[in-house]
Amino acid sequence: MSRDPLIALRPWESPEVTSWGRLPMSAVDRRAGALSLDGEWRFQLLPSPDSPVTEAWSSQHVPGAWTLQDTDDLPQYTNVRMPFAEFPPAVPAADPTGVYEREVDVPAEWAGRRIVLQVGAAESVLLVHVDGRPVGISKDSHLAAEFDLSQVVRPGRRATVRLTVVKWSDASHIEDQDQWWHGGITRSVLLYATDPLHLADVTVRARLDGELRVECRVRDAGGALPEGWYVSGELDGHPLTQDEEFDRANAEDERVSGFLGEALIRATVPDVRPWTAETPELHGLTVRLHRADGTVADTSYRRIGFRDVEIVGRDLLVNGERVFIRGVNRHDFHPLTGRTVSYDDMRADLVLMKRFGFNAIRTAHYPNDPALYDLADELGFYVVDEADIESHDHAHEIADDPRYLNAFVDRVSRMVLRDKNHPSVIIWSLGNESDYGANHDAAAGWVRRHDPTRPIQYEGAAKRGWADPDLASDIACPMYAPIEDCVAHALSGEQTKPLIQCEYSHAMGNSNGTLADHWAAIESTPGLQGGFIWEFWDHGILQRVSDGRPAGRTGAGLYDNGVAAPGHRWAYGGDFGETIHDGAFIADGVVFPDRTPKPALYEHREIAAPVRIECFKHEGIVLGNHQHFRGLDWLSGRWELSLADGRTLTAPAELPDLRPGETAAVPLPFELPRDSGEAWLTLRVTTAQDMPWAPRGTEVCAPQVRLRADAPVTDAPVTDRPVVVDAEGLLVHPLLTAAPTLSLWRAPTDNDELGGMAPRWRAWGLDALVRKVVSVHRDGDGVTVLAEYAGTVGVVRHRQVFTPVEGGIRIDEQAELPEEFDDVARVGSVFETVAGLDLLEWFGQGPWESYPDRSAGAPVGHHSVPVDELFTPYLRPQESGGRHGVRRFTLSAPDATGLAVTLDAPRQVSVTRFRAEDLTAASHHDELVPRSGCVVHIDAAHRGLGTASCGPDTSLSYRIAAGIHRWSWTLRVL
Ligand code: GAL
Ligand code: MG
Prior knowledge:
The chain has 974 residues and is mainly beta.
């Protein structure tokens, strides 16, 4: 047995032990003025925590995960299941343990001061030694641990700090979140000093009406507090004083000993500018702790916001308003450094969220770096702060296991203690996917007493029944509930709590179908208030293909626009040789691993539009302000009129002065040209000034209304230009390398695969239909071709009628799907072109990718995009690059030659360098070899995307029925 007591205790197998020698958590921020211990540390990776430390040191950068820094312990991805078989609280004997060591020169001027070591985060057990002496133990991988070193180190001397980090522990069983497993010290390490007399904690309550209470907890390292200390404060430069009434009451209270260091500052701030996510008004609060002679012993500075959060009936109110929660779940993630994220990275995440209309973040599934909350306060987000508890694989056993009781209360209370002063935090979450048991109620009870100002949510409790009056969830916060169920609950008369989905619209691959339908229901149904999209990130780790290792910190710049540089790829589960893993399920975010937005974000941006076109009436365009707290003065507008004849007209727009919820009619900015065909009016809304999250002129939304429907044109047949087909009835055309044939298959999306559709389609043989020509019938210059496409269980009859028309060929198609082929991926034509046609121009929805159930954010207009940029490089290749509502398009070479297609109705079209079979065969984007020509799909019907990889499939209206489908298109040469 080891002689080191921290090792001999075997704390990694003792859930009751949550810490030893660790200081209580505090909301006082000590980052400013601290000595950073970040940088290179001596390092060795032991096979288990009780293996002897050797002389074989290498080095590691702190903060960072050793799993990403050239050790043999590589990242592993699992969703629900634990990566090992041991039952909680046990762990495998092989338990990678990182030993970090470095010297620290303790400043001489710290003599007489209290010296504290702070380790920002360590996974999953931290053991601290200084100069060989045991100092402390901590668990709770995503919160800082502090240790008082005053008695251990000597100012002016050098000390050796050793941080031993054990990867697998009893705590791993409650840190079983759906993410990569790593080991290491993932947040900064620092050393700071305070006066022995110090502010141990500060609790701020700042209300909408200007009432301010600042509770101070004062301690002295020497034990008893010195006589005569007092606190003072300053808000935006205005002095605040200690509340004597509170002191008197304390003095008279027999239960309060003289030892108690509590003081209160109370003030009423007149004309306070309230904080909301739309108006993140912050005020600077300085709290000073004075000695009896007035000198300052300690100071705490923070920015605070005045706001109220409450639940009234079934509404969650912020400052009295029922706000919509347009949320997203965010993990700490970086493709090179894993859970180690810099301030700049966090800021970039939040800036992007802001630009795409999000106003809320759930810190799935653990407390984030402290800077994230500062940024949320500053940029304006409502935060659901979630404790680091997920016991997914052993949820039922652990929720009521008294051995884990301490850990539950410890984790929830430490989060609340740290983050309680952030105006952005409006809800506490007890964790994720850990069933529901007495351990949760214990934690909830602690929160209710310590912070009665915020609601609590916990999905595991809400699961028991959305209206259940349980102790642990004030909010009905289900995950992936179908829209119909939410609406039915809100209409049932049974609803008792606000319904805000903690996760919905699973963003895996090409997804987020029906997002607009969700929001149509939310905005029109009292009781529904929004939700948090799952999730922000695709957690692809940048990997070198040559040796399969993570690129790590040296990989900066080896990716662009969502794509890894040649020789690299975005690794997902299984790519590091793990045998137990959950594949690409880790790639389920609205941004690529390098934060490049996926097209789904544009959908969200439009759905969240602060200003909207309500309708077009004879008196003009009715605009509405859909914000909760501010006018439209921070926005500017520009009208854009897109006409089917090819023209786009623009005009400046004057946005009316509208308060939240108001509407007003503005005159139609254009005289509608006659004979211009279909006409669409778009309001391009941009920021009118520089915002902290967007420079002036950044587009915020582009609401649109149709002013005139199309007038269908039929091409008159011409003679003397006979259509040529071969013996198989396939069109012969100089620009086509593969003639138009019928397609019912798309490269399965993750939703298609995991939702069970793709396996069914494969079983029907839709990926390999066998075409057989039945007849080729010439009628003058035209040709009618009948063919059959046989699957394994049914045959589709397909007819193409080719008619020469002015400048080209009209193709009228009909496909008759047998009963067996109910609910297919698409019904349409596919053909391939010669090389060199590299630009797609179209009139239809765009410019970004859109699908039938994800098209609210793609306005109709004239768009032009190089073919190579049409495709979206989802990590696992799948159907991608589609454009919805296309009326006509051209595919051209730089010399303007090429082809033009006119469609009989707005259709789903895709133009890519890949056949559906190319995409289906590849598992990673880097395996794809682009074809030189274009693969063009024109779909009479295309199935919606839905979210069935985790959650509801697309709704019935976006599915494709068996029976007869007809479509026509005209092909011309430019
Ligand atoms: C939820 C879970 C998330 C994630 C998601 C699927 O059940 O809370 O952590 O696993 O499903 O991607
Ligand atoms: Mg889970």
